[in-house]
Amino acid sequence: ADYINANKNDADEVNKILSIQQKLIGWPEKQSLVKPRRRLIREGQLSKGKDKFVIFLFTDALLSVSYTHLT
Questions:
Q1: DSSP 32-45
Q2: Are 24 and 8 in contact (CB under 8 A)?
Q3: Which of 38, 39, 42, 56 has the smallest number of CB atoms closer than 10 Å to its CB?
Q4: What span, in angstroms and rounded, lies between the C-alpha atoms of 34 and 17?
Q5: At 38, is the secondary structure helix, strand, or coil?
Q6: pTM of the model
Q7: Strand partners, 40
Q8: CA neighbours within 13 Å on the CB side: how many for 26?
Q9: H helical segments located in the chain
């Protein structure tokens, strides 16, 4: 049961990251956000003046995306 739960959690994480990648406008098709052991820790919004960003914190990376680059 633990093995099945671990695999389900891994699949859920991959799907979450793929969903983020699909929303990114202009992201290179051949470059994947999915990496072994990469997990999404937190997603949040950031405003600086008139500029608005979405921040994605992964276990091994930080991705900052302008709202104009999201679908």
A1: -S--TT--EEEEEE
A2: no
A3: 42
A4: 6
A5: coil
A6: 0.80
A7: 58
A8: 6
A9: 2-23
- The C-alpha angle with vertex 9 and arms to 29 and 24, in degrees rounded to 5, equals 25
Residue pair 47/54 in contact (Cβ under 8 Å)? The answer is no
61's tokens: 């990376």
C-alpha to C-alpha distance for 58 and 48, rounded to whole angstroms: 22
What is the maximal distance between C-alpha atoms in the chain?
50
User: What's the pLDDT tens digit per position in 51-60?
Assistant: 999 999 999 9
24-33 confidence digits (pLDDT tens): 999 888 899 9
Q: What tokens appear for 44 in the block? A: 């949040």
Beta bridge partners of 24: 70
Using CA atoms, how far apart are residues 61 and 64, in angstroms rounded to an integer? 10
Residues 6+ apart with CB under 8 A from 60: 35, 37, 38
